[in-house]
Specification:
- With 323 residues, the chain is mainly alpha-helical.
- The chain folds into 2 domains: 2-59; 84-318, Orthogonal Bundle (MetI-like fold), CATH 1.10.3720.
- 75% of the residues lie in helices and 1% in strands.
- A two-stranded antiparallel ribbon has the order 1-2.
- Helix 11 (243-258) packs antiparallel against helix 14 (293-318).
């Protein structure tokens, strides 16, 4: 069609049309070449990280999955047992109990610090320019700077029989409720949860405060003109505006609850009895003390799946409105 249309055209116009078509083709080729070069450069930047991820993350996960189908002590010849290790997790209370403890810790490691961090951030935002706000941010964020091992040792001293907690209770006349908080079957897990909440509070507060700084002050002024009080402002403006930050806080703290290890290892080592035993600590004991590498691998795979099953819906809910 183009050739037939150009036959009846004057020679000069035909040459201009051909030159324009050639320029368009060359421009498209140049654009395609630039895109390929950019894509190649981006691929070269991604390859080292992808290789490191594959070697240090994907490969260990696959090996762990392979070990989970065997009965192996880490030294001698392994024996294929299929899904027996997974079935034992569901039927053995000593293996299923730590999973329940991890879900109980979600209340202390996640819900408590996220709620308190949200309230603290909203309160600090009211007097953000004052020295009190600066001091409050530093004090609340300080636990994030302290190593978890040091935090565990410190709280072990504080909650001991003659620690600061019990001495304070005796000072105000509540000596009857004093106890070894980390050594009592009924209070050990909540006491560990208090340590986790104390550690996570600062991070949640800073994330929430960062989200609140992007809220337009005109929204609060309009709400006040409409007669809204502080509570109404919080639920109608502040809370919906920090939806993404709330999702990040919940994700990070839920993972820390399900995969907790260091604080519990330092403070209680899973005791008294197995009242504070969690999957991470149980995996450690199974693999390095009881030499049940296959069973430890199966519990590690179950823990990974539980984390994904909890975190992925949280991410979906947090990003639901934007999608």
């Amino acid at each position: 069609m183009t050739e037939r249309w150009q036959i009846g055209m004057p020679p000069e116009r035909r040459e201009r049309s051909l030159a324009k078509s050639l320029r368009l083709v060359e421009g498209r080729r140049a654009t395609r070449a630039r895109r390929l070069r950019r894509g190649g450069s981006a691929l070269l930047l991604v390859v080292p990280a992808a290789l490191a991820y594959g070697v240090f993350v994907v490969r260990p996960i696959l090996i762990t999955m392979q070990y989970s189908f065997y009965d192996w002590n880490g030294v001698s010849e392994s024996t294929w047992v299929g899904l027996e290790n997974y079935a034992r997790i569901l039927t053995d209370s000593e293996l299923f109990g730590p999973i329940l403890h991890a879900f109980e810790l979600i209340v202390y490691f996640s819900l408590v610090p996220v709620s308190l961090g949200l309230v603290a951030a909203a309160a600090i935002r009211k007097f953000a320019t004052s020295r009190v706000a600066v001091v409050a941010r530093v004090v609340l964020f300080l636990p994030q700077v302290i190593p978890l091992v040091a935090a565990g040792i410190m709280w072990t001293w504080l909650m001991s029989t003659d620690g600061l907690v019990n001495e304070s209770l005796r000072l105000i006349g509540l000596g009857s409720v004093t106890r070894a908080w980390l050594g009592d079957f009924d209070t050990a897990l909540p006491a560990v949860g208090v340590i986790g909440a104390w550690v996570s509070l600062g991070l949640c507060m800073v994330l929430m405060l960062a989200g609140m700084t992007k809220i337009d002050p005109a929204l609060y002024e309009a709400a006040r003109l409409d007669g809204a009080g502080p509570v109404r402002e919080f639920f109608a403006i502040t809370l919906p505006s920090v939806r993404q930050e709330l999702g990040v806080c919940l994700t990070v703290t839920v993972i820390s609850a399900l995969a907790s290890f260091d604080i519990i290892y330092i403070s209680t080592q899973g005791g008294p009895g197995n009242s504070t035993l969690v999957p991470g600590l149980e995996i450690y004991y199974l693999a390095f003390f009881e030499r049940e590498v296959g069973q430890a691998s199966a519990l590690a795979v179950v823990l990974m799946l539980l984390v994904l099953a909890v975190v992925l819906p949280l991410q979906r809910v947090a990003r639901g409105r934007e999608s």
